[in-house]
Amino acid sequence: MSSSPQPTTPEGPTGAEFRRGPFRVGERVQLTDERGRMNTITLAEGGAFHTHKGFLNHSEIIGKPDGSVVTNTAGHQYQTLRPLLADFVLSMPRGAAVVYPKDAGQIITMADIFPGARVVEAGVGSGALSISLLRAVGDGGYLHSFERRQEFADIAQGNVETIFGGPHPAWHISIGDFQDEVLKAEEPGSVDRVVLDMLAPWECLDAVATVLAPGGVWINYVATATQLSRTAEAIRADGRFTEPDAWESMVRGWHLEGLAVRPEHRMVGHTGFLLVARRLAEGVEPLVRKKRNKAEFSEEDLNAWTPESVGERTVSDRRLRRVARDARAGIGEA
User: Fold this and answer.
1) What domains appear along the chain, each with residue ranges and CATH number?
2) Which of 30, 207, 230, 269 could crosslink 179 through cysteines, CB 3.0-4.6 Å?
3) What percent of the chain has pLDDT over 70?
């Protein structure tokens, strides 16, 4: 399955026209009340937002500029804003865990995803990372996403088309195993960046090394320390990449009220590890780090990589079909 390229709109890059100007019918709007509670609604002709404290007619919002304050029938005020990308990602229909905004931002920066880049990704999930990658490569770039399950691809396509207001000209999505399909779709040495969010990225070593251009970046998103270790050791043993680097990021908000300035009690802690390596030129030997012990894995270790063994929840086909319908319904609302 692939989305057909579409020309850049006269209003600017794809989706830009939905990010500025007055509120219009079909747009999502984030309402925040005096207590800081947020609700997201989709504007409709004749629509209304009801609570136990009165209701707010959508007509009070339609035509007003972003950042307006409106009052409902009971005199309660709401701040109206267009949801940011982070807001959309955390509330969009999903069939799999999404890549959190903090990790997507790290991937875009640390993998140097630039406008016009040729990028391939695998493990599309619900499309959260795909949206960030498309924003980074722009209409003149290229993103080819590979997903093993049709249901996840449907959910991702619905979410991508919702936020961009239709198909994105740089995006193509294919169904199948990355290590097989990418070799059919991409010429050797033609890809600038490879982004993998999957259970066993080390199984894709040959495919990545084949399609990635010399100097190109390969970044992996993995959930557990054992996955991180196995991937790093496989990259080292392969000999076609630079020494891998790994890190994680954690985000802690702060409470700001008068002199009561302190860290919030909750934070976004561990979500995943990022591991990055770069493709060496053909025939070049990698520099070998001194005093590095060679890791060994037993046959039992190698056969233990199943979604259940690393704590992934199994999602039923019935639930995926329902989420896919919700994601596709969002296209008509955008």
Assistant:
1) 20-81 (3.10.330.20), 87-327 (3.40.50.150)
2) 207
3) 89
